[in-house]
Amino acid sequence: DLKIIHGTTGFFVSMPSKKRKDGTYKDIAHPINNETRRMIEEKIIAEYQKVLAEGGSAKALDND
User: What pTM was estimated for this model as a whole?
Assistant: First the structure.
């Protein structure tokens, strides 16, 4: 449930969360610190860009 989002300063990764009954969201995974978040984002975004360069689609794939 990770999402790659193109923001005003470039791509970033939105961590998975689940919607609660009251309509708010609760993170179900969150990096322990900024260094870990940066490492995760760099690897995910690099792979995303690799797939796009190979002619893949920017559309999210659902593997369920």
Answer: 0.69
Identify whether the C-beta of residue 2 lies closer than 8 Å to the C-beta of residue 15: yes
How many whole angstroms separate alpha carbon 23 and alpha carbon 18?
Answer: 10
Q: Give the residue from 33, 6, 29, 4 showing the smallest Cα distance to 16.
A: 29
Joined together, the tokens standing for residue 16 give 């998975």
Mean pLDDT value across the chain: 85
Q: How far apart are CA 61 and CA 63, in angstroms?
A: 6
For the chain, the distance separating the N- and C-terminal CA atoms, rounded to the nearest angstrom, is: 11
Distance CA 39, CA 21 (A): 33
pLDDT at 64: 40
